[in-house]
Amino acid sequence: MNIRKACLFMALLILSACSESEERGGDEAVAVVADNPVMLSEVLQVEAVGSARAATSADIYPETAGRVTVVRFTAGDFVQRGQPLLVLDSRQQRLAVELAEVQVQEASQLLARYRRIEDTGAISDSQIEAGETALASARVELQQAQEALADRTVRAPFSGHIGLTEIDIGDRVGPDTLIAQLDQRGTLFVDFPAPEAAFSRLSPGTVVEVTPFSDPDRTVEARIVTVDSSIATDQRTFTVRTAIDNSDDTLRPGMSFRVRFAGSGVVRPAVPEQAIVWGGEGSYLWQVVDRAAQRVPLTIVSRRDGMALVDAAIGEDDLVIVEGVQKVREGQAVNIVQPLEQAAQPVELREQAETEGPPE
Q1: What is the value of pTM for the model shown?
Q2: Tens of pLDDT along 111-153?
Q3: How sure is the predictor about 241, in pLDDT bands with cuts at 50, 70 and 90?
Q4: For position 168, what pLDDT does the model report?
Q5: What does the radius of gyration of the chain's CA atoms come to, in whole angstroms?
Q6: Tens digit of pLDDT for each residue in 76-96?
Q7: H helix or E strand, kind and range, residue 275
């Protein structure tokens, strides 16, 4: 019985010593392969779908209500600035202009008579002032009548291509009736959403590539002209506006484009993927400090060709264990060895001696 108790006591001592050894990371050095991280730039890639709009675009509405008497455009026409597009019935407005012209003429004649007899004392200064006021009022009324008459003709606010219309002669329209859309499409704006992470990289002057879905084999360079001043909190994106040349008039407002942008980002340390260890508190790697293993927490930013770009407190001169990571613990002494290379196998060449007859 005493022998059995003694054996049990010795076994407990051995287990306790092993446990303490593991907590200290072990006293014996473990052979590992270590290397320096490689400093690489993040590759920032943005792919999005954008929509085109004309550099200048306007929905044309009449200023007043009336019956259409003339339609002076066809869908697709290129119209010049100030060109008449639509004419409304203007008979009453023309009569109003003629009446205002008569009133101006009468007020002018009356004031002229007052001026001729002003020095005779037959008319007072207040009467002359009243005549001047009447003439000024008549001129204002004439100007108002002329403006009302001009509003009966809808004109192009700028030069561009006019779109489809549903207005015909005889239709009655009002200020809320859409006549047509006018686009100046020599330059197109392509707006697309970009992720918040690319905000500092997409600035005015940056060039991106856009490809129209209607012509996948065509790639156009688009230059950023402006970016939105805020980030959408629901999508964590912001709007970028680019400009493309459309002087050949082959693209149209409203078209969809595939937008691509690639650029270099922040320079980060890169380590082989097998150097990363996953634990209950997240991912980490082992750094060799004073010939001992030290845990360094990390966050994987991206992966590239078997390498992981990480956000970690390591530099290009630090040593990171890349082989043997499962054998070490915190504070474990390590012995850095070179990776094994397959040795070249010697080839023995044997020459057969020439004889007069075949070998026996």
Answers
A1: 0.61
A2: 998 888 877 777 888 888 999 999 999 999 999 999 999 999 9
A3: very high
A4: 95
A5: 44
A6: 999 999 999 999 999 999 999
A7: none
Q: In what order do the strands lie in the sheet with 153-155?
A: 153-155, 84-88, 66-71, 172-173
Q: To the nearest 10°, the Cα dihedral for 207, 211, 41, 321?
A: 170
Q: Which residue has the tokens 């691509």?
A: 260
CB neighbours of residue 107 within 10 Å: 20
Query: Tokens 């004392």 sit at which residue?
Result: 121
d(CA 154, CA 72): 10
Give the pLDDT score at 339: 65
Structure token digits, residue 235: 């999508």
Which runs of E-coded beta strand occur in the chain? 30-35, 38-60, 66-71, 78-79, 84-88, 153-155, 160-162, 172-173, 180-195, 207-212, 220-227, 237-245, 256-272, 277-279, 282-289, 292-304, 307-312, 319-323, 334-336
**Mean pLDDT taken over the chain:** 85
Alpha-carbon 144 to chain mean position: 48
pLDDT of 188 strictly over 70: yes
Structure tokens at 173: 């329209």
Extract the tokens encoding 140.
């204002």
Residue 333 DSSP one-character state: B
Sequence-ordered alpha helix ranges (H) in the chain? 2-23, 91-116, 125-150
Helix (H, G, I), strand (E, B) or coil at 279: strand
Given a contact cutoff of 8 angstroms between Cβ atoms, the answer to whether 15 and 222 are in contact is no
- In the predicted structure, residue 327 carries a pLDDT above the cut 80: yes
Task: Output the six-digit token pair for 307.
Answer: 């390498």
